[in-house]
Amino acid sequence: DAGVTQSPTHLIKTRGQQVTLRCSPKSGHDTVSWYQQALGQGPQFIFQYYEEEERQRGNFPDRFSGHQFPNYSSELNVNALLLGDSALYLCATAGPQETQYFGPGTRLLVL
Amino acid sequence: KNEVEQSPQNLTAQEGEFITINCSYSVGISALHWLQQHPGGGIVSLFMLSSGKKKHGRLIATINIQEKHSSLHITASHPRDSAVYICAVPKIYNTDKLIFGTGTRLQVFP
């Protein structure tokens, strides 16, 4: 079991560009949550996907969107990137009666 | 007041010392997570516990659901334990979004 995996590990973009980050859940997990962690800050909840639907959403603008596929993997898309979007993006997955497990994160730098 | 509070915020120790980090929460939960994050690194799940005590190597986590308090202990601390330790609780259900504590930055010196 590979656990939670995320890709890419690092990414550099420029302002105004769009980015897609990917998360593959741990085997048996069907719920995927995305978090943004700015440097020196705690993680902030972006949204959660379950059964291919956005189930909960944090206080993030519509530039942040997501998707969950039938195999439970998920994508996070960010449009019109701003410098302030530079952060570590974490996904956490969970299954029924299961604890949440974090992926290693994708570090995004917006120049 | 934060829904999840940790203490201390910063902690320094000499190698070999016994370390305790505390977490108190005000939301109604069924479980609590202890997480570890090394500088520049991702988050590693250490424990999820809903009652009593769990032990993994030199790490011990305890929780008192009635008092809404949890502790993380590190025995025989080592410089490689230096990291930020975060407690987090799901808002309601186990799979719910997590509410994070502010973290405790631990530095263990040789």
Tell me, what's the shape of chain B? globular
Q: Note the gap between the termini of chain B.
A: 36 Å
Residue stretches of chain A low in confidence (pLDDT < 50, at least 5 long) are: none
- Cα-atom radius of gyration of chain A: 13 Å
- The multimeric state of the shown protein is heterodimer
* Record field, number of beta strands of chain B: 11
Helix percent of chain B reads under 10%
**Low-confidence sequence ranges of chain B:** none
Protein structure class of chain A: mainly beta
The general outline of chain A is globular
- The separation of the N and C termini of chain A measures 36 Å
Largest interface: A-B, 25 and 20 residues
Report the total helices of chain A.
0
Order of helices and strands of chain B: EEEEEEEEEEE
Give the percentage of residues in beta strands of chain A.
over 45%
Please describe the biggest sheet of chain B, giving its number of strands, its sense, and whether it closes into a barrel.
6 strands, mixed
The helicity of chain A comes to under 10%
Radius of gyration of chain B: 13 Å
H and E order of chain A? EEEEEEEEEEE
Helical stretch tally of chain B? 0
Structural class of chain B comes to: mainly beta
